[in-house]
Predict the 3D structure of the following.
Amino acid sequence: MHTPRTTLSVRGLHVNYGDHAVLKDVNVDFPDRRLTAIIGPSGCGKTTLLRTLNRLIDNTEGTRITGEVLLDGQDIYARGADVTGLRRKMGLLSQRPTPLPMSIFDNVAFGMRIHGERPKQQIAERVEYFLRHASLWEEVKERLHQPAGGLSIGQQQRLCLARGLAVGPEVILGDEPTSALDPISTRHIEDKFTELKERYAIIIVTHVLRQARRLADHVVFMYLGEVVEQGPAEQLFNDPQHELTRAYISGSIS
Amino acid sequence: MEKSTRNRLLQEQAALWMMRSAAFVVFASLVAIILTIVVKGWSSLSWEMLTSTPQGGYYLGKGGGILNAIAGSVYLALGSTVLATGIGLPIALYLNVYASPSGRSVGMIRTALDVLFGVPSIVYGSFGFVLMLWVGIKVSLFAGIIVVGLLVVPIVARTMDEVLRSVRPEMKDAAFAMGATRWETAWKVVARQGLPGLGTALLMGFGRAIGDAASVMFTTGFTDHVPGSIMDPAATLPLAIFFQLSSPVPEVRERAYAAALVLTMIILILSIFGRLLVKRSSKHTI
Ligand SMILES: Nc1ncnc2c1ncn2[C@@H]1O[C@H](COP(=O)(O)OP(=O)(O)O)[C@@H](O)[C@H]1O
Ligand SMILES: [Mg+2]
């Protein structure tokens, strides 16, 4: 019954775009089976931090990264680290839902197929399983082989969630995953997160403070590339230790 | 009505009028070209012309047809489009998935392709001829396919490049985030998203390949026979048109228009057919 506890932690992380220091000495521990919200004003480096966690930042030109990101005790930036392997352990939801240019079914099957998984029958079963898991099955079961682009934006985001879950991640990353969604779809995704954090570590970037209050167990507040304060949501929202945190939470800086 | 409002309405009208005239010019030239070749060529177009090779005295107005040129052109254009795609698609995928976007190689490759795009086809032809002498290849369908293929690479590669460039970066991120390799991202996601545009690039390449005369003159040669092997010389429609048009015999000049009609029909049929395919292939495009 015991799955190993994922520990994702960031140690002394610096990220530069050219001469511009975007992350400065970031140290964060992301607790397993909790939802961590990364908050802070626009441009403070939230997206950058998220993209260092699954090394998507490798695809951005001109970045220099120093420090460590430890996943299950292994530094993912270590020489010879298995990048595709580590990315499998992390699902990603982007700001705007990004279905792949294929059918609904193939979107969910994509990850299983590239990772060389199993016979057809089993793929079909797992596609259904993960679509149910993302609460999308009932809405799409009649049109699995239709283009994914035909879904509503909210359905697309749940499809992306199903697709990410299908590769068997330990961590779910979301970069403002509800900012393009209508209120009802936002509720759907938020409810899903609340459910999923029983089994996964969830890390979302959000600029909506109310969303962080609603969902987060743990909060990381960033300002100008630095982590100013982090801790249990209760404490950070009700009794912030730092002047800047207090100012941000009260809305006097944004 | 206020003066400024009236001016702005006038501006709208003027712009609309200008755009309509521009569209009219394009449409009118298409109609004019087709009308000219139909009117001048239709009477000499016959089944015999499409299905037989030139017999003795064809260029003096006697019997036979241009099957040699039709076959040669179709072989040549197909071969060189396949070759150009084989070179152009990997370049486009490299530029958009493999290379670092702001890297120096990307700019250099794009510039090189743009420069090559501007090189006149007669230069390709003479360059190819020199190369053939040097390597020791005779005038043949093979030599023509290579040279015309190279001529078409810049169009195919740059068009495909622009198509793939418009694929949202988030889509690539989504594939990478699932643990896809660059190969898988390139072929299964980026190329698939760009499929309709890639099809259009192919059509443009084919159109350029089948219509060019200067590059095939010294490389493919001209013959009255349908090529039996890739190492045979081959006739092509643009050259057939050119030779017939320069004839002093009026009947032969009319046949030139019939040959032009055939060439145009091939391109037209292919474009219509291609558009249908492109439309079907865009089913999954996001
Ligand atoms: N590709 C890039 N090249 C250069 N600078 C960048 C790039 N991406 C982001 N930045 C800069 O890094 C800083 C942090 O950006 P980001 O992580 O997107 O912040 P956030 O998500 O908190 O709004 C910003 O100042 C932004 O201008
Ligand atoms: Mg951001």
